[in-house]
Write a structure and sequence with these properties.
alpha/beta, 8-stranded mixed β-sheet, 9 helices
Length: 333
Amino acid sequence: MKKILLIATGGTIASIKTKNGMKPNTSSEELISYIPEIKDICDVDYIQLFNVDSTNIQPEHWIKIVNCIKEKYEEYDGFIITHGTDTMAYTSSAVSYLIQNPKKPVILTGSQKPINADITDAKKNLIDSFTFACDDDIHGVYLVFNGKAIVGTRARKLRSKSYNAFESINYPVAAFIDENRIIKYVEKERKESDIVFHTTIDSRVFLLKLIPGMEPDILDYISDNYDVIVIEGYGVGGLPFHDKRNFFDKLQMITKKGKIIILSTQVMLEGSDAKLYEVGHKTVSNYNVLEAYDMTTESVVVKLMWITSLTKDFNEIKKLFYKKINHDILRID
């Protein structure tokens, strides 16, 4: 039997009711006690890394998760990380960039209801995760939820309460898990490259969502306090330049200061194509502005945190940003 390590970090799956609302409290040992049938699937060890609501998850927590897996990597055949759903897509992206070329499965999962609830999705999600992790052909970082295995860089939470909370964005679901059956839609490439662990992150990345009427002066404050600004524009990607709310003057100013600008889109599906319209074409053609294309916002933000911890040179950042990691980007012009 395979040997799997459960790394518990808190979240709804581990929550209990209190007078102030639900809060994580259930231990990793207790989580396993709710699924005694797991003994027929694999041998399980468990560790309580921390026990927090995922709203409180920070980049420093990602580093702790990665360091834990790095320390235990040779001892186990796979890793299951239980996590709150609200920021799990960020964490699955972070683990994808901080642990590259893993030859073993690293699975994130959680639930919309606590594992101690009378009706809960927690048990299914846990068992599905262990089942998926024990498949001989599975390696890499995934988010497993509601019978779906989603590539770690492609997951997004779309529903706040439903069991079907997560979807794969601009990329197929990697596999469906139906009890003991695993139906694979995306085969993971087996690369000869050795596993690489990264344990640094630079969190000075800001996400700005445009709205009509926003004043370009907001970029003055942001550029004084952050090194990277991801701008979610409209449609296929564009910035307003009409009349007094002209963002182009600010782009010139902050890119000259060495700040990195990424143009993304608020539209969740199909990605950006900035050169299609004048409002985007001028942005990416006249300034040192990178385009997110089909990447998820979560992956864009976290990938830049990883990259800027390694280099601040624009050309190197561009090269790494457009390097495909765990299927995070398909289109590169």
